[in-house]
Amino acid sequence: MAEHIQVTRALFNEVMVPNYAPAPIIPVRGLGSRVWDQAGREYVDFAGGIAVNALGHCHPALVTALKEQADKLWHLSNVMTNEPALRLAQKLVDSTFADKVYFANSGAEANEAALKLARRWALDKFGEQKQQIISFSKSFHGRTFFTVTVGGQAAYSDGFGPKPGAIDHAEYNNIESLKALMSEQTCAVILEPLQGEGGIIPGDLAFLQGVRDLCDQFNALMIYDEVQSGVGRTGKLYAYMHSNVVPDILTTAKSLGGGFPVGAMLTTTAIASHLKVGTHGSTYGGNPLACAVAEAALDTINQPEVLNGVIEREQLFRRELAAINEKHNVFSTVRGQGMLLGAVLNDEFKGRSRDFFLAAADQGLFALVAGPDVIRFAPSLVIPEADIIEGMKRFEQAVAQVKQG
Ligand SMILES: Cc1ncc(COP(=O)(O)O)c(C=O)c1O
Predict the structure, then answer these.
(1) Ligand 1 test: best mutation among 192, 200, 227, most atoms within 8 Å of CB?
(2) pTM of the entire predicted model
(3) Are 226 and 266 in contact, with CB atoms under 8 Å apart?
């Protein structure tokens, strides 16, 4: 028998690398959009991890898929293929622009694959001079050294030695700033159609179309990072489906596994052909447990009533937030789409998103921040109306708490 260890928050500081600063409570159980901590206190979950638990906690379809697969086969390696991976790939291909899928274990890894593929595609087709990758201010693409350097906050990639090169940053929603950087040497432009970590900033339709046009003009690949916006979160299976702008490569993770780690890169046959045998890989990518759960998540989410339900919930969220704001006057605007919303703090409360986050936890609500000025909500796509109402009641108490100081 394993020795019994008393788990407390203090233990984190003793045994964990200090790169996170988790909240004082330790959640131990979740069901739907409610979570309970060690002391038995119950919370409403408006965070969903960080836009991950797309079907809440312990959704029966996902639990069943995981348990069934757990009794069959856990892992093989990519020397073999497996049924859940191929079923999931088929469904992703059937429901998107893509013809081909590469599986990873996280968003960063999906982006790493996308960026490496873009570089290899450009090298094969145009030669060594075509290496430039352009991304945008405030973007977030993960924490591997390549993806974090591509991301829009230099502070995250500073202090780790020489950075990968040929990476430039333009201003998001400013097509002129992209135009000024682009040339025949541009190999790819990567962007989130709705920026998440950067503050829940939607890409303007004209801007997204402009990026597509410039990529076409300069023979560059357009990569959509839908790690946060994908798998139903905006009310479409992928956010690109709200417009006529179709990327060449799309990355997806977070909601894809509904809480089980899995990521994927989707692309066309012509582009995929440049990642030949041996060019890239991952021990766990395409793991049968992960793919079985993701298949169940995709089956459940990719239904008109679920996707339409996301839009209905967005409307309820917006109504509730507007009512709170009418009383307390703390936001300048609420932006985002579907179940990925950001309440932007007005001048009086600028820089204090963490205070709201902490007060919300005090009041029994998990919320999120997206930078210092934005309170982010990324709940389950199927959160019951009653949980939204109860969560908003608690959020209003949190707002009152912050205002009282
Ligand atoms: C848009 C976007 N891309 C990539 C990532 C990185 O994903 P992961 O943490 O799974 O590596 C994130 C995570 O927040 C994200 O929001």
Answers:
(1) 227
(2) 0.98
(3) no
